[in-house]
Amino acid sequence: MTVADLSTTDRYPTRGSDSALLERTDPTVWSGGPTGPATRDELAAHDTKGFHVQEGLLSPAEVQTYWQELERLTRDEEVRADERTIIERSSDEVRSIFEVHRISPLIGELTRDPRVLDRARQILGSDVYVHQSRINYMPGFRGTGFYWHSDFETWHAEDGMPDPRAVSISIALTDNFPFNGGLMIMPGAHRTFVSCAGETPEQNHKTSLKQQRVGVPSEEAITKLAYEHGIEQFTGPAGSALWFDSNCMHGSGNNITPYPRSNIFIVFNSAENSLVDPYAASAPRPNHIASRDFTPLQR
Ligand code: 6CS
Ligand code: FE
Fold first, then answer.
1. Which residue's CA is the nearest one to ligand 1's atom 9?
2. How far apart are CA 275 and CA 25, in angstroms?
3. In the chain, where the domains are located
4. Which of 126, 131, 141, 241 could form a disulfide with 54 if both were Cys (CB 3.0 to 4.6 A apart)?
5. Cα separation of 16 and 2, whole Å?
6. Where is the composition biased (Polar residues) (predicted)?
7. 105-137 pLDDT per residue, tens
8. How high is the pLDDT of residue 138?
9. Ligand 1, residues 209, 214, 216, 247: which to mutate, most atoms within 8 A of Cβ?
C-alpha cells in the first residue's frame, strides 16, 4: 500500500511502501481550553518551535528527592525484573522504567502537580490523561541514546493516537550537558509529519524500546529537515524541564561521560484524542507503554 492509498483513510499515513513529508494539519497549542501558568511568550515559542523550557520546575530539594526515588527504583530487584523495565543492550544497567507514575506514588503525584498538569491542559486546550511515563536513566559511560524520530509517528502507527494533540515533559534529574546525551531537537520540524516506509513487525515494542528500527525517518528526510530548521539541544541544570510537542523530530547521542543524564518523562494526551485501533500495526501495544485508561487527571 502506498502513502497515497493510505491517505484516504488517515491524515497521517505511515509505514506504507514509501516515505513522504506531509503537512501537519493540526494546531500545536490548542486554544479555547483552560488557562494555565505558561506565559504568552512560552506558548508562542512552543507553537513556533514545538518546544519550550520550564526553568526551575523542581527545587534542588525536590531534585534530590526524585533522584533518590530513581536510585531506589533502579536498585529494586522486583522493578528490575518487571516487564516495564528496559535494560541497556550493552550492559545490565536500567535504560528505562515505563509506567513509572503507577510504580512510584511519588512520581504519580508529579503528574497531578499543578505546575505540570495545568501547563499540559493549557497547551492541549482540554482535560488530559497520562499516555505514557518513563524514567530514562541514561547511565554514564554506557548510556545509549535514541536515533532521530517523531514520537507521534509511533504513537499513531502502533498505539492508535489519532492526532498530534499530545505533549511530553522531560524533567532533568541530573544536569543535562551537551556532552552527556542531551536531547537534540529540530525547531519547527513538528509542523511536518514524516511518513516512514516499512511495515510494523509483530510485537515490535519488544525491540523498539531498546533500538527503533521501523518508524525511523530516512536520512533524506532528516537531512532536509535539519537544513531547513537546524538543531537545538536541551541542556540545563537538574530541575529544569523541556516541554515538547508529540511530533517534534528529536534524538539523543550516546553518553560516554561519567555524568548520567537521567530524566523523568511524562506524556500527556488530550482527553479528546484518546486512542483508537492502531493505524499501522496488527495489535495495540501493552497498556504500560500506551495507556488505555483515558480518565482525565484531576489535581
Ligand atoms: O515508542 C515509544 O513510545 C517511546 N520511544 C521513544 C524513542 N520515544 C518516545 C517513547 O518513549
Ligand atoms: Fe522519543
1. 151
2. 18
3. 40-169+184-270
4. 241
5. 5
6. 1-11
7. 999 999 999 999 999 999 999 999 999 999 988
8. 81
9. 209
User: Ligand 1 within 6 A of 146 CB?
Assistant: yes
Measuring CA to CA, which residue among 154, 234, 169, 137 is closest to residue 200? 154
Residue 7 has pLDDT above 60, yes or no: no
Q: Which residues contact 152 (CB under 8 A, 6 or more apart)?
A: 12, 161, 164, 166, 193, 246, 247
Write down the pTM of the prediction.
0.95
Nearest-atom index, ligand 1, CA of 151: 9
130: closest CA among 257, 13, 241, 293?
293
pLDDT, tens digit, 9 for 90 and up, residues 226-276: 999 999 999 999 999 999 999 999 999 999 999 999 999 999 999 999 999
Q: Which CATH code is given to the segment(s) 40-169+184-270? A: 2.60.120.620
Q: Which ligand 1 atom is nearest residue 208's CA?
A: 1
What length is written for the chain? 299
